Automatic annotation (TrEMBL):
Species annotation: Pteropus alecto
Cellular component GO terms, alphabetical: membrane
Xref: InterPro entries: MCLN_ECD, Mucolipin
Domain Mucolipin extracytosolic per the UniProt entry, residue ranges: 62-237
Protein name as annotated: Mucolipin-2
Keywords in alphabetical order: Membrane, Transmembrane, Transmembrane helix
Membrane spanning residue stretches: 251-280, 301-325, 345-367
GO MF assignments: NAADP-sensitive calcium-release channel activity
Length: 425
């Protein structure tokens, strides 16, 4: 009875192992089990792809607005901007008079912004909760220039001076703040002048940080002017949306919630499959250790871990987190960061891919002829798990052959009986 019970357990283990390593079609033919995980993955792919397309289309206008807004601000704040950037900077000046005029022009344009801009803009508060411009100049600590013997004595230490010009100060006579000692620049020791301010863009629902930098670090007689902008997300107060826009937003939120439910179901099913696979592996290890008195190799143990399930679980977790963030921020401007970083990431991937392919071909050409490739001629040796499953297949073939032989014998006996019976009658 003990021997019979051991054989029954062995056959059950073989059947479970054989069923586990079947593909969904074979499982359906064997037990008519519906491949729920496969159908759920196909549905998830369709829904997540639709979600990404809708998210990209909804943010396309935001990206276009950001680009057009940046060009508009360059025309507004940079004196003499031609519409085409010079290398990596926007424009440049070559005389002290042009430098002063460019600085004062940007300040005056900020003060007159609401009267000259075509966009819907407002003044924003800086880090100190103050509205206005912040002008900072960076220069060497000390410097003395002797024109007689053409020598220049410079202390390499750098110091920064800043001044804040609020709207009230700018509304006064411009000569008052223009003639202040702060704007008396000593260009031979000046490194850069930076003008920074914040603006509210209602269309973007953000605060835009703008920065104009006059770079004189090279002291070559050419001051490069840089225009930089950054967008920070900030919720609108008393947001009230009516009409079809709000309905569309609700539909998108419902769709995102449904995607989260589908991903949770996929996550649960894949986790359940991994748990069952680990349980089956434990049964196989105990049986092999009990019958053959040795452990199963690591390669066979890893056969029970389906890497696709692990990837699906990671993908589900990331999709759930992304959908939650998407529902939270709705149509905010995170896509701008991706747009700015995507070209650099693609260039890095292209370079890294070429290097990887180069090393791969080099190893294949140089080391390939010296490698013993008997496995390619005779095949790889079968592992313990494969031999165990092969016994199950051979037994099924023997049983099928014996059943075919018995059916043939029965048919022969039946036909002999049919021939003899009429003779007897």
């Amino acid at each position: 009875m003990a021997h019979l019970d051991s054989e029954v357990k062995e056959e059950c283990l073989r059947e479970d192992l054989k069923f586990y390593f079947m593909n969904p079609c074979e499982k359906y033919r064997a037990r008519h089990q519906i491949p729920w995980k496969l159908g759920l993955q196909i549905l998830k792919i369709v829904m997540v792809t639709t979600q990404l397309i809708c998210f990209g289309l909804s943010n396309q206008l935001v990206v276009a607005f950001k680009e057009e807004n940046t060009v508009a601000f360059k025309y507004l704040f940079l004196k003499g901007y031609s519409g085409i950037d010079e290398d990596n900077y926007s424009c440049s000046v070559y005389t002290q008079e042009d430098a002063y005029e460019s600085i004062f022009y940007a300040i005056n344009q900020y003060h007159r912004l609401k009267n000259i801009s075509l966009g819907t803009l407002g003044y924003g508060e800086n880090e100190e909760n103050r509205i206005g411009l912040k002008v900072c100049k960076q220069h060497y600590k000390k410097g003395t220039m002797f024109l007689s013997n053409e020598t220049l004595n410079i202390d390499s230490g750098i110091e920064t001076d800043c001044i804040h010009l609020d709207l009230q100060t700018l509304s006064k006579d411009a000569e008052d703040w223009k003639n202040s000692s702060f704007f008396r620049l000593e260009f031979y020791r000046l490194l850069q002048v930076k003008i920074s301010f914040h603006l509210k863009g209602i269309d973007l629902q953000t605060i835009l940080s703008r920065e104009i930098t006059f770079d004189n670090k090279a002291h070559s007689g050419k001051i490069k002017i840089y225009f930089d902008s950054d967008a920070n997300i900030e919720e609108c107060k008393d947001l009230n949306i009516s009409g079809s826009v709000q309905k569309n937003t609700q539909y998108v939120l419902v769709f995102d919630a449904f995607v989260i439910v589908i991903c949770l179901a996929s996550l649960i099913l894949c986790t359940r499959s991994i748990v069952l696979a680990l349980s089956l592996r434990k049964r196989f290890l105990n049986f092999f250790l009990e019958k053959y008195k040795r452990r199963v190799c690591n390669a066979d143990q890893w056969e029970f871990i389906n890497g696709w399930y692990v990837l699906v679980i990671i993908s589900d977790l990331m999709t759930i987190i992304g959908s939650i963030l998407k529902m939270e921020i709705k149509v905010k401007v995170l896509i701008l960061t991706m747009q700015a970083s995507l070209p650099k990431v693609l260039r890095f991937c292209a370079c890294a891919g070429m290097i990887y392919l180069g090393y791969t071909f080099c190893g294949w050409i140089v080391l390939g002829p010296y490698h013993n490739k008997k496995y390619q001629q005779n095949g790889f040796p079968e592992t313990d798990l494969q031999e165990f499953l092969k016994e199950c297949s051979s037994r099924e073939e023997d049983q099928r052959a014996s059943s075919d032989f018995l059916s043939c014998v029965c048919c022969l006996r039946r036909s002999v009986w049919c021939v003899i019976r009429p003779l007897c009658s």
